[in-house]
Amino acid sequence: MKKYSLPDISKASDTVVLANGEFPSHPIALSILENCKFLVCCDGAINSLTGTDKQPDAIVGDCDSLSAENRELFADIIHSIPEQETNDLTKAVTFCIQQGRREITILGATGKREDHTIANISLLCEYMKGCDVQMITDFGVFNAIDSNSMFESVPAQQVSLFCVDPCIVTSHNLLYPIKDRIFTNWWQATLNESMSNEFAIRTNGRLIVYRAF
């Protein structure tokens, strides 16, 4: 059974993808951004990053959001992918996987437009096929799973599940127990709570687990 750790400021990430949503402000997200070994920016995100001391290793996207100044400044690390079948976040994650990077943390993928936020969160179920990926926001962490999994937690931590498939779900160590339930809408398994330092989810389909900071 795979176990998912709980992010904290002492843990570094090998690879970070910075999306063009709200720039991170939570100490955990900022620490991960500052200490990552390899940073890929979706093209619009570089406009926010240039206000910091952090330098990207690559900029990936269709490049429609790059300023003229940044096009010139970062010309040697820009990877332009003009196709419109995928969004810039997917282009950036795919780039990382093609570089052999399998441990990826996504930052800045929520906020601003709600349709982008929903789409980016749901895409975790696509990305998990090729890498170990987590999405960290200013409020918590999202992980996508498709098999039985254990999650590091703290007592009373808020937990929500979002079922992408109509799968059978059972929980252990959650305040509101789930026993062989099939959920048919995203809201139905939200707003639960951890009762211990870890909890388990058993599933035969895809779902997204959220743990609040």
Summarize the structure.
The chain is α/β, with parallel strands linked by helices and 213 residues long. It is 20% helix and 31% strand.
Task: Walk me through what this model shows.
The protein has 213 residues and is of the alpha/beta class. It folds into two domains: 2-138, 3-Layer(aba) Sandwich (Rossmann fold); 146-212, Jelly Rolls (Sandwich). The protein contains six helices and 15 strands. It has helices at residues 27-35, 46-49, 68-73, 88-98, 114-122, 124-127; strands at 2-4, 15-18, 38-42, 58-61, 78-80, 103-107, 132-136, 140-145, 149-152, 158-163, 168-172, 181-182, 192-193, 198-203, 207-212. The protein has a ten-stranded mixed β-sheet with strand order 5-4-3-2-6-7-8-15-10-13. Strand 2, helix 1 and strand 3 form a beta-alpha-beta unit. The two termini are 24 Å apart. The model has no long low-confidence stretch (mean pLDDT 93).
Key descriptive features of the protein:
single chain; 213 residues; alpha/beta; Rossmann fold; ten-stranded mixed β-sheet; five-stranded mixed β-sheet
Shape summary = elongated
In CATH, the homologous superfamily of the largest domain goes by the name Thiamin pyrophosphokinase, catalytic domain
Number of strands: 15
Structural class: alpha/beta
Mean pLDDT: 93
Strand order of the largest sheet: 5-4-3-2-6-7-8-15-10-13
CATH topology of the largest domain: Rossmann fold
